[in-house]
Every structure is written in C-alpha cells, then in structure tokens.
Amino acid sequence: MAKVYYDHDADLQFLKGKKIAVLGYGSQGHAQALNLKESGIDVVVGLRKDSSSWEKAESAGLEVRIVPEACAAADIIQVLLPDEIQGRVYAEEIEPYLEEGKALMFSHGFNIHFNQIVPPKNVDVFMVAPKSPGHLVRRMYEEGKGVPALIAVYQDYTGKTRDLALAYAKGIGSTRAGVFETTFKEETETDLFGEQAVLCGGLTELIKAGFDTLVDAGYAPEMAYFECLHEIKLIVDLIYEGGLGMMRYSISNTAEYGDYSRGPRVITEETRKEMKKILSEIQNGEFAREWMLENQANRPAFNAVKKRERELLIEQVGAEIRQMMPWLKKNK
Ligand code: NDP
Ligand code: MG
Ligand code: MG
C-alpha cells in the first residue's frame, strides 16, 4: 500500500519567502493558484498575452505576467498548461529561466516520464496531482476541506523536494484529505491505462457495442439509448459512492444475477489479454511515440475518428432525447 500524508506531515514554512509561478489558469491552474494564495503563499500566474483568462485571474486578486516573466520571478514553477504543448513552451519560455536551485513541478507526469521535457540536473522536479477536476479542488478548499492528491519526487537537487511537495499539497488543501506518494512513472502509466482501457476507450466502446446490438436486432434507438447510455450515470453514481457492492445492493436481484452470469462473457479472457497489450504499449513508450507523431502531423487520424464518431446514430438520438431532460445544462 502507498504511504499517506496528512496536514501534520506537511509544513507551509517550506514555501515561505518563495514565489510560485502557476502557468495556466484553466481547470487546475485557477484552483491551485487561488488556493495557494489564500494559504498565504506568494503566487504569480503565467499566461500568454492574449489569454482570455488574464482579466479573470487579475480580478480574482492574482498577479498575472506573461510566462517568461512569471518564470523569471519565481522560485517554483508549476506547469498547468495542456500536456501536448508543455514541451514547446518549456523549451522556449521556461527553461531559460530555470536557474540552479529552482523547482519545476507538474500535476501530471507525461512530459517528464516520456522525456518531452528534460530539466537540468541542478533543479528540483516534483509532482502534486490532485485526484479531481479543478473546480472540486477549489470548492473543497473553500469549504475547509480538500481533495486527495498524489505527490512524486523525480529529481531532488536541494534535498528539500519532498518537503516542498508536501507543503504545496497543503497549500492547495490536499493534506486535509490525504496525499499518496507515487512516482512519475506510476502516475503516468496508470493514468494512461485507466483512460484508454476503462474510463474513456473501454466505456465508449462498451456503450456503442450494446447500443448497436439492440438497434441491429430491431429495437428502437431511443430505447437502446436509455438502456445502454443514459442509465450509466445511475450505476456509476452508486459505484462511486459505495463500490461494486453498494451498486449490486441497489439493483434488482434479476439485474444482479445478470451481472454475475453475463458480465464475464462480455469482458473475456481475450479482452483481458488485450488490456495487457495496451498496458505494455504504454510502458514501452509506443503509445507516447504514436501520439506525439500524430500531433506533429496535425492529428490526421485523431480528426478523422472524431468526425466519424460525431455522426454516429447514438449521438443523433442522444441529442434529441437530452432536449427532453430539463435538468441537463444545454452545453453544446
Ligand atoms: P486546461 O486546458 O484547463 O487549461 C490550460 C491553461 O493553459 C489555460 O488557462 C490556457 O489559457 C493556458 N494556455 C494554453 N496554451 C498556453 C500557452 N501557449 N501559453 C500560456 N498559457 C497557455 O488544462 P488543465 O487544467 O486541465 O490541465 C493542466 C495540467 O493539469 C495538465 O498537465 C493535466 O494533465 C493536469 N491535470 C488536470 C486535471 C483536470 O481535472 N483537468 C486533473 C489532474 C491533473 P489560454 O488558452 O486562455 O491561453
Ligand atoms: Mg489523463
Ligand atoms: Mg433496466
């Protein structure tokens, strides 16, 4: 089991007298910058000049500078930019200001683990990764609580890197909930695997396969949509709150028997074998290489699939059915 740290393991003093540049003011950037500031830490937000977030950050009382100026002024640089542009921004606007003894940090390990960013040896490199979207990081902090987070030390030049990571985690409220120690490798590989095999790739294919099976058998697409997509949320909410057991307690006995007896026929030995293959492509760098090349070529395959998926029947039917659900936000 991983080691867990709480408030009493972390000391904000390690951040006193230091300035933290939070680069980006998106989901994580706004939450982390505001929480740190309210924890009494000196924060500067780094953005591009034409960023639509510039005014938002300033009117929230934060100091805002362009990225190179924020990096020059800071002792600790937290990179909360989209992962696929971090390598370029690092080379052009961060590295020139990464002087000896400074610290470079992330909330996701991808660019360090896959060598898209290779920091100099004479700086600290660490991660503090909240296990939740930014708005929850912010809301929990405001309520005097926090969300669990991961910390990881990649490079410890000053000998104080773990203390910095714990202090930062405290500054955003996460030691109130609990902080797990991991490595850049573990965080990156498990994150990619989860989204590919289960959360995004696995789930969307499962939904589509179920929907298609019903529609191909002559059932109404609307019925197929309710049964194979809409109801996912009801089930996931139960699992999220109380694990598989609570979900199975809440569903009917018939549903529970169908779960036990049919589930393993959907996720077969073959599927598990394929999952292992997906994991090894993550571990040996094949996936990262493929995704980097795809980006360099302006995403031809990505854009083609994206277009095809938008045109699926399940998406057309879903758009109409969701019009009938007044509780859903109309987000296009
Ligand atoms: P967002 O896409 O929400 O925000 C990115 C921010 O970067 C925006 O403020 C954007 O502002 C700014 N930005 C984009 N390009 C540039 C540029 N060239 N120069 C300066 N600023 C730029 O990102 P997230 O918060 O989702 O992700 C940030 C990091 O946090 C990633 O490493 C991600 O993996 C990690 N993470 C994210 C989680 C989440 O819940 N979203 C959870 C845990 C980790 P603008 O476009 O206005 O310039
Ligand atoms: Mg991810
Ligand atoms: Mg049913």
Automatic annotation (TrEMBL):
<comment type="similarity">
    <text>Belongs to the ketol-acid reductoisomerase family.</text>
</comment>
<dbReference type="InterPro" id="IPR013023">
    <property type="entry name" value="KARI"/>
</dbReference>
<feature type="binding site">
    <location>
        <position position="191"/>
    </location>
    <ligand>
        <name>Mg(2+) 2</name>
    </ligand>
</feature>
<dbReference type="GO" id="GO:0005829">
    <property type="term" value="C:cytosol"/>
</dbReference>
<comment type="function">
    <text>Involved in the biosynthesis of branched-chain amino acids (BCAA). Catalyzes an alkyl-migration followed by a ketol-acid reduction of (S)-2-acetolactate (S2AL) to yield (R)-2,3-dihydroxy-isovalerate. In the isomerase reaction, S2AL is rearranged via a Mg-dependent methyl migration to produce 3-hydroxy-3-methyl-2-ketobutyrate (HMKB). In the reductase reaction, this 2-ketoacid undergoes a metal-dependent reduction by NADPH to yield (R)-2,3-dihydroxy-isovalerate.</text>
</comment>
<comment type="pathway">
    <text>Amino-acid biosynthesis; L-isoleucine biosynthesis; L-isoleucine from 2-oxobutanoate: step 2/4.</text>
</comment>
<feature type="binding site">
    <location>
        <position position="191"/>
    </location>
    <ligand>
        <name>Mg(2+) 1</name>
    </ligand>
</feature>
<feature type="domain" description="KARI C-terminal knotted">
    <location>
        <begin position="183"/>
        <end position="328"/>
    </location>
</feature>
<dbReference type="GO" id="GO:0009097">
    <property type="term" value="P:isoleucine biosynthetic process"/>
</dbReference>
<feature type="binding site">
    <location>
        <position position="195"/>
    </location>
    <ligand>
        <name>Mg(2+) 1</name>
    </ligand>
</feature>
<keyword id="KW-0413">Isomerase</keyword>
<dbReference type="GO" id="GO:0016853">
    <property type="term" value="F:isomerase activity"/>
</dbReference>
<feature type="binding site">
    <location>
        <position position="227"/>
    </location>
    <ligand>
        <name>Mg(2+) 2</name>
    </ligand>
</feature>
<feature type="domain" description="KARI N-terminal Rossmann">
    <location>
        <begin position="2"/>
        <end position="182"/>
    </location>
</feature>
<dbReference type="Pfam" id="PF07991">
    <property type="entry name" value="KARI_N"/>
</dbReference>
<dbReference type="Pfam" id="PF01450">
    <property type="entry name" value="KARI_C"/>
</dbReference>
<dbReference type="InterPro" id="IPR008927">
    <property type="entry name" value="6-PGluconate_DH-like_C_sf"/>
</dbReference>
<dbReference type="GO" id="GO:0050661">
    <property type="term" value="F:NADP binding"/>
</dbReference>
<feature type="binding site">
    <location>
        <position position="53"/>
    </location>
    <ligand>
        <name>NADP(+)</name>
    </ligand>
</feature>
<keyword id="KW-0028">Amino-acid biosynthesis</keyword>
<dbReference type="InterPro" id="IPR013116">
    <property type="entry name" value="KARI_N"/>
</dbReference>
<dbReference type="GO" id="GO:0000287">
    <property type="term" value="F:magnesium ion binding"/>
</dbReference>
<feature type="binding site">
    <location>
        <position position="134"/>
    </location>
    <ligand>
        <name>NADP(+)</name>
    </ligand>
</feature>
<feature type="active site">
    <location>
        <position position="108"/>
    </location>
</feature>
<dbReference type="InterPro" id="IPR014359">
    <property type="entry name" value="KARI_prok"/>
</dbReference>
<keyword id="KW-0560">Oxidoreductase</keyword>
<keyword id="KW-0100">Branched-chain amino acid biosynthesis</keyword>
<feature type="binding site">
    <location>
        <position position="48"/>
    </location>
    <ligand>
        <name>NADP(+)</name>
    </ligand>
</feature>
<dbReference type="GO" id="GO:0004455">
    <property type="term" value="F:ketol-acid reductoisomerase activity"/>
</dbReference>
<protein>
    <recommendedName>
        <fullName>Ketol-acid reductoisomerase (NADP(+))</fullName>
        <ecNumber>1.1.1.86</ecNumber>
    </recommendedName>
</protein>
<dbReference type="InterPro" id="IPR000506">
    <property type="entry name" value="KARI_C"/>
</dbReference>
<keyword id="KW-0479">Metal-binding</keyword>
<dbReference type="GO" id="GO:0009099">
    <property type="term" value="P:L-valine biosynthetic process"/>
</dbReference>
<feature type="binding site">
    <location>
        <begin position="25"/>
        <end position="28"/>
    </location>
    <ligand>
        <name>NADP(+)</name>
    </ligand>
</feature>
<feature type="binding site">
    <location>
        <position position="252"/>
    </location>
    <ligand>
        <name>substrate</name>
    </ligand>
</feature>
<keyword id="KW-0460">Magnesium</keyword>
<comment type="pathway">
    <text>Amino-acid biosynthesis; L-valine biosynthesis; L-valine from pyruvate: step 2/4.</text>
</comment>
<keyword id="KW-0521">NADP</keyword>
<dbReference type="InterPro" id="IPR036291">
    <property type="entry name" value="NAD(P)-bd_dom_sf"/>
</dbReference>
<feature type="binding site">
    <location>
        <position position="231"/>
    </location>
    <ligand>
        <name>Mg(2+) 2</name>
    </ligand>
</feature>
<feature type="binding site">
    <location>
        <position position="51"/>
    </location>
    <ligand>
        <name>NADP(+)</name>
    </ligand>
</feature>
